[in-house]
Amino acid sequence: MLENILASLSMTFTPEVILILFIGVVFGCIVGAIPGLGTCVALVVCLPFTLKLDSISAIALLMGVYGSSIYGGSISAVLINTPGTPQSAATGLDGYPMARKGLAGQALGWVTLASIFGGLLSCLALMVAAPQLADLSLKYGGPLEICALICMGLACISSLSEGNQIKGILMGLAGLLLATIGNDPVSGEMRFIFNTDALAGGISLMPVVVGIFPLAEVFYRIHELRSSKEVQPIECSSLIFPKLVEWKGRVTNLVRSAMIGIGLGILPGVGATASTFVSYTTAQKFSKNGLDFGKGEPDGLIAAESSNNAITGGALIPTLALGIPGEPATALMLASMTLHGIIPGVRLMVDNPDVVYSSFMLLILANLLIIPAAFIVIRTFGYIIKAPAPILLGLIVVCSLVGVYIPSGMFFDVPLALAIGVMAFGMRLYNFPVTPLLIGYVLGPQLEFNLSQAAIYRGDMSVFSYVTTSPLAMVLFSIAGLFLFLPILRSMFLAGKSALRAKV
Amino acid sequence: MKKVVVTMLAMLFLAGNAMAANYPDRTMTVVIPFGAGGETDIVARILAQAIEEEAGVTVAPKNIVGAAGMNGCKAVVSAKPDGYTVGVIPSAPLVMHPHMRKLPYELSAFELIGRVTYDPYLVLVHKDEAWTDLNAMIGDMKANPGKYHWGSSGTGSVPYFAGKNLFESFGVDAKHVPFKGDAGALQAIAAKRVKLYTTTAGVLAKHDLKALAILAPEKSEKLPEIPAVSEFGQDVFYSQFLTLVAPKGMPEDVIKRLEELVAKAVASEKFVSDIQKLGMTPAYLSAAATKEFVEGEWARNEVSIKKMMEK
Asked: How far apart are CA A229 and CA B58, in angstroms?
């Protein structure tokens, strides 16, 4: 084994590979940061280049882009409240308020460090326990368990909209409804397509994400400017890393969120988005400053970002160890590796151990290289956001619409995104939280799919006896119940208490 | 003034002719009806590169995704028939989906330029299963109706029809579980939640699977130890093939040139080795032979799908 590690060290630390890795990291960071684009677009653009490079360089490019694009999405989430990738939506919840308070540099500092930690921890998990974790994902990745996880993710809606629960839950349900447009996953029948071909494929993810975040934000800013409210411009010249003392009491949060990211990342399909919200909500419950979440609390940032980047390592586990890609981004990486003769799957460690160790080293390096890339990208972004509002907003709209068009190639998605943007803007005006809409929309199809599968496996058993076959599922369902009902009970309790006090 | 106009018009006409004579002389677009990273996408990209080498112009892949390939097919059919927009279409949207629902295109709207790959499906089970051949599996399933589950990559996909047809021909009652694409089904087999899946041979290298039969009239040269399904008494044939298509109405010489380019591209060393690395088989057929092949598949699927849809 030692010769393998040494061999891969020499393969990895060549100037060419490191340079390509760095280019990948910067490129991924930039593309991730531009609202509307994201991990998939970045990887698709790189795909032709990987075909021409040799295998280690190709892996370097892909790892670099993959890890940093998720980080890049957080930059725009913090600076302009338009998460560049859906996984960064939770980051914006605390990041943007911090930026508005003038603490943009510090916010980005927290984000960067939490991301890198999450990424590194998941690399470690990948290196040490990939086969074991892969086996776990097989055993516990059944439809019932995934249903329970998704219910947990959906239940986060209740916590995220504390104080505004009815509207939050309504939006979550609206998201679920929106996701039903298109074909039924089990029977193949079309629903809600109003006899148009355009909707036959359902509403894809990008128009919704782009509509809810960048476009609605643009419309909202225009509204703010026209009602001439005093808007504090966001200044950000550089990263400001938090001092060591500020980490006190926050380390458990950091580690826990990373573990959630790894755990959910290894379950293919549940998705990065669900994981970040589950991690955020868990942190909210356990943190001393839970009530400050949503107003610019570093704990929230840490929770979201750490799990967000931990997913990259987690998602690679089934990809490399089982040959089963968990999400489109890893599917692209899988295809690229196969073309280079590296067959992921059960034989990867046996046939190509030096490639495997190389990949791990490259991923670790990619995470570390985020720091220099971050400085470059944030400084550039800092200049760009100083541009006059009309230009900046116009740029955001253009980039977002381009980002909508690229993945699907269907022009219809563009007016669709605009329509969703207008709708989301209306919701913000009337104080309807839009994040639950995204959560419902992203998790809806997975929930339905897994629920249908679970129903098929259940066959003739009673629901109760089927659920009890999986202790993990029962635990997860109970946690979901807690997430859902605790905030409601708490506000009822507080309302009752203050009513009592008023009487006295 | 008149002279200028006439000259300009003359030049335009000449330019038009010049384009046809020097085809291709600008960027071509290859429409891919499925998402980036999938099987169709990767093969299409390799093909695009190979054609680029032969033709000397940029060949740009473009993914137009949605509705199980319908959006991409529609885009190809409605493109200008000048030879600069082509598509790479797998078997399902071409010969299977038209029998399932009303589509905005017909087989006759495509100019079939050539078949690129052809891979018959295999009946796959987990390596640790006790069944040694197809008969053993069928016997076990007949003895335990409704107990076993089999996977497909979605209702209406090729594995779905393959599985359904297989079980109906042999008279077996097994429960269908839909998944999202190959990945989900293969994970479920690895986790032993479903027993069977059908797909091309590319997955054998990556996963702990064994093939009980090949869904083709004869054994494959690459895998001679796998018996053909006909040996067990039923003709259940399913395969994945990719074709290069273009909209109907192109000028004759453009069609000829395109055919030449595809033939050379598929025969090129790099293409062959890349496709084989993916576990697929390059299997070029000329335009005329492709038309015959596709129409045969169309007719065969019409019969079997209509029969299955009646249930």
From this structure: 51
Q: Domain for residue A223, yes or no?
A: yes
Q: Flag whether residue A268 sits within 8 Å of chain B, measured between CB atoms.
A: yes
Q: CA B174 to CA B138: how far, in whole Å?
A: 10
CATH of domain B122-232: 3.40.190.10
Q: Which of A183, A186, A324 sits opposite B183 (nearest CB)?
A: A324
Average pLDDT, rounded, for chain A: 82
CB contact under 8 A, A51 and B65: no
Give me Rg for the CA atoms of chain A.
22
The 10s digit of each residue's pLDDT in B67-105 is 778 888 999 999 999 889 999 999 888 888 888 878 888
User: Given this model, what pLDDT does residue B19 score?
Assistant: 47
Residue B54: other Cβ atoms inside 10 A: 18
DSSP H stretches of helix in A227-318: 251-265, 271-286, 298-317
Distance CA A420, CA A432 (A): 14
- Chain A residue at shortest CA distance from B275: A339
Show the low-confidence residues of chain B (pLDDT under 50). Answer: 15-20
Measuring CA to CA, how many Å separate B116 from each of A258, B49, B242? 45, 14, 5
Sign (positive/negative) of CA torsion A268, A269, A272, A276? Answer: negative
Token pair of B309 as six digits: 């849809």
Tokens (6 digits) for B305: 């799908």
Chain B CB within 8 Å of residue A455 CB = no
Please state, as a whole number, how many other Cβ atoms lie within 10 Å of the Cβ of residue B173: 13
Supply the ipTM of this predicted assembly: 0.74
The whole-angstrom separation of Cα A400 and Cα A394 is 10
The whole domain housing A213 covers: 2-499
Our count of domains for chain A comes to 1
Considering the entire predicted model, what is its pTM?
Answer: 0.80
Element (H, E) at B282: strand B282-285
Find the CB nearest B205 among A347, A453, A459.
Answer: A347
To the question of domain B27-118+240-310 being in CATH 3.40.190.150, the answer is: yes
Please report, to the nearest 10 degrees, the dihedral formed by the alpha carbons of residues A242, A244, A245, A247 taken in order: 70
Distance CA A313, CA A47 (A): 20
Residue A383 has pLDDT above 90, yes or no: no
Does A421 fall in a domain? yes
Residue of chain B whose Cα is closest to the Cα of A187? B155
Phi, psi of A346 (to 5 degrees): -60, -20
List, for residues B124-173, the tens digit of each pLDDT value: 898 888 888 888 888 888 888 888 889 888 777 788 888 888 888 888 88
Residue A229 — pLDDT band, cuts 50, 70, 90?
low
Task: Determine which helix (DSSP H) or strand (DSSP E) holds A418, and give its type and residue range.
Answer: helix A413-429
Amino acid (one-letter) located at A402: V
> CA nearest B42 in A: which residue?
A335
| Residue A364 lies inside a defined structural domain of this protein | yes
Residue A269: what pLDDT?
A: 65
B87 backbone dihedrals φ, ψ, rounded to 5°? -140, 155
Instruction: Tell me the per-residue pLDDT of A125-145, one tens digit each, with 9 for 90 and over.
Output: 887 887 777 777 777 778 888
